[in-house]
Amino acid sequence: AEALSIVAWAGVFSVLLALYYGPTYATYMSLAPLAHRGALGALIVVLNSLVGYGLGPPLVGALSDLIARQGIAESLRWALSAVVCLYFVAALFFLAASRTAGRDAKAAAAG
C-alpha cells in the first residue's frame, strides 16, 4: 500500500510539474514575431534541457555532498527538497511576468 501511495503521489507531482509548459510556451510564441517563433521554440527547449538535465543533477549532487559533510543524515533527500523550493522562486517570477503579459501581447500584436 505504501508503494502504491508513493507512485500515486509521484504521478500527481509529475502532472503538476508539467502544467506550466502550455501557458508558458503559448505566451512566448504569442509575444515573438512570426519569423522568429521556430528559433525561439528551439532555443527554449535547448535551454530547458541544458539547465534542467545538464545542471540540475550535478547541482543536487554537490548540494547533497555539502549537506552530508555537515553530518546530516539523508543528505540527498534534503538536497532534493531544497531544489524543489526553487519552484516557489520561479512562481514569483511568473507572477511578476503576468503583470505585464497582457500589455506585452497587445504591443506585439500592434507590431
What's the quick description here?
With 111 residues, the protein is an all-alpha fold. The chain has 5 helices and no strands. Helices cover 86% and strands 0% of the residues.
What do you see in this structure?
With 111 residues, the protein is mostly helical. It is built from five helices and no strands. The radius of gyration is 18 Å and the shape is elongated. The mean pLDDT is 91.
Which SSEs are present, and which pair or pack?
Layout: H1 2-18, H2 21-31, H3 37-69, H4 75-84, H5 86-110
Helix pairs in contact: 3-4
Radius of gyration, CA atoms, in whole angstroms: 18 Å
For the sheet with most strands, the description reads: none
How far is the N terminus from the C terminus?
Answer: 57 Å
H/E series, N to C?
A: HHHHH
Number of helices: 5
Proportion in helices: over 70%
**Helix/strand structural class:** mainly alpha
- How many strand units? 0
Overall mean pLDDT score? 91
Pick out the low-confidence regions.
none
**Form type:** elongated
User: How large a portion of the residues is in β-strands, by DSSP E?
Assistant: under 5%
